[in-house]
Amino acid sequence: MAPWGKRLAGVRGVLLDISGVLYDSGAGGGTAIAGSVEAVARLKRSRLKVRFCTNESQKSRAELVGQLRRLGFDISEGEVTAPAPAACQILKERGLRPYLLIHDGVRSEFDQIDTSNPNCVVIADAGESFSYQNMNNAFQVLMELEKPVLISLGKGRYYKETSGLMLDVGPYMKALEYACGIKAEVVGKPSPEFFKSALQAIGVEAHQLLSV
Amino acid sequence: MAPWGKRLAGVRGVLLDISGVLYDSGAGGGTAIAGSVEAVARLKRSRLKVRFCTNESQKSRAELVGQLRRLGFDISEGEVTAPAPAACQILKERGLRPYLLIHDGVRSEFDQIDTSNPNCVVIADAGESFSYQNMNNAFQVLMELEKPVLISLGKGRYYKETSGLMLDVGPYMKALEYACGIKAEVVGKPSPEFFKSALQAIGVEAHQLLSV
Questions:
Q1: ipTM (interface predicted TM)
Q2: Using one digit for the tens of pLDDT, what is the confidence trace for A19-37?
Q3: CA A58 to each of CA A16, A130, B191: distance values in angstroms, whole numbers, following the listed order
Q4: Is the Cα torsion angle A88, A94, A95, A98 positive or negative in sign?
Q5: What's the gap in Å between the CA of A4 and the closest CA on chain B?
Q6: Is residue B125 over pLDDT 90?
Q7: How far is CA A71 from CA A25, A32, A33, A34, A80, in A?
Q8: Hey, CA dihedral for B30, B33, B35, B41, is it positive or negative?
Q9: How confident is the model at residue B3 (pLDDT cuts 50, 70, 90)?
Q10: Helix, strand or coil, per DSSP, at residue A112
């Protein structure tokens, strides 16, 4: 492998994950990971383009950015690529009206979306909102469609909180896939389209990118 | 294909499903399917051995049989092969202490089972008990085991109630499989061992059986 200096020579942009890279989520807004506040500040002073790319789907970008700013990060909403706004764009482009199986914290991202008479399901890391009732509602919506469309904000298996491991959206996506005999469309990492939209936002090509 | 008379010539036993064959479940104990009460009575008067084989995992056999008797069926607990008692036998044989992710209606079947300090998870059609909290508890138990054991009472995708389609245990089994990267052991149909135990109970070989 080439030495770091050489490998970094062509780098023009940096894509930073948020949870587990900048901070650990948890009670009271979470805690910044040691050195990360200063690292972001230094990157922003450098010649590199910086973009934040997250699969966070329990919070709106506004809430997430507010939390990070309180922890000392130099970050604004416009610098964040997140699955909820990406999903909204897809919904609008395709005339889809979702049944939303999501956390209340991210609902504001869907304010402009028509959810009447649903013709698809959007599933995100809904936490306690993954009740049997809500899952069954989503299932029934899908089963009544001729071509069921299930959009999943990420497909993570689980994540870590200070209180222990927590089920992420992926297992619930799999549950609905199996129940309906369908395949979900994943919006968020590791979907190539999602990475591409983050790159486009900073005008950087994939081979010029460093991803953390 | 041979004519019915010839095909039935070697038949010595009949395996009858319950839900959807004898009755349709629903509010107020469900309703008998037309002709099924008399069909069971006639089979029992014939030279054929009769066994009831169900994947019902929301009710104990006692409750299920009580319900069917009230609908007019000639049936007793000892004639029913069901996944909960089959699972109990496996738990005892292998020294397994389950975390039970099950419906309260079937809990009495596990009265004799040690559930302290769980070293496996048993999942059944838990209905409203499939809360995020309960699913996460089951997940955490599995993730703390060196060799996670997940036993699923059936793997049905959904079933029909008078109020509409309802998610069965299968989707939740898939969710835990994906979350933990494991494969569940299915107790109940279509597991061959389960059919075998039903056949053994009436002393009939597979080629002598008619299954409805």
A1: 0.90
A2: 889 998 777 778 899 999 9
A3: 19, 12, 39
A4: negative
A5: 35
A6: yes
A7: 12, 6, 10, 11, 16
A8: negative
A9: low
A10: coil
How close B102 comes to chain A (CA, Å)? 13
Q: Assess contact for A142 and A176: CB atoms under 8 A.
A: yes
Residues in chain B with CB shorter than 8 Å from the CB of A140 are 164-165
Give the angle subtended at the CA of B165 by the CAs of B134 and B103, to the nearest 5°: 30
The phi and psi torsions of A167 (rounded to 5 degrees) equal -65, 130
Structure confidence at residue B40 (pLDDT): 96
What CATH number has the domain spanning B51-203?
3.40.50.1000
Q: Report the Cα A35 to chain-centroid distance in Å.
A: 23
The three-class DSSP label of residue A120 is strand
Instruction: Output the CA torsion sign for B174, A184, A170, A138.
Output: negative
Is pLDDT of B110 > 80? Answer: yes
Mean pLDDT, chain B, whole residue set: 93
Residue type (1 letter), A178: Y
Backbone angles phi, psi at B86, to 5 degrees: -65, -40
Chain A positions touching chain B (beta carbons under 8 Å): 126-133, 135-136, 139-140, 143, 157-158, 164-168, 170-172, 174-181
Residues 6+ apart with CB under 8 A from A151: A87, A90, A91, A96, A98, A120, A121, A122, A123, A184, A185, A187
Structure tokens at B146: 């060196």
Kindly report the number of other CB atoms within 10 A of residue B88's CB atom.
18
User: Which chain B residue shows the shortest CA-CA distance from A179?
Assistant: B157
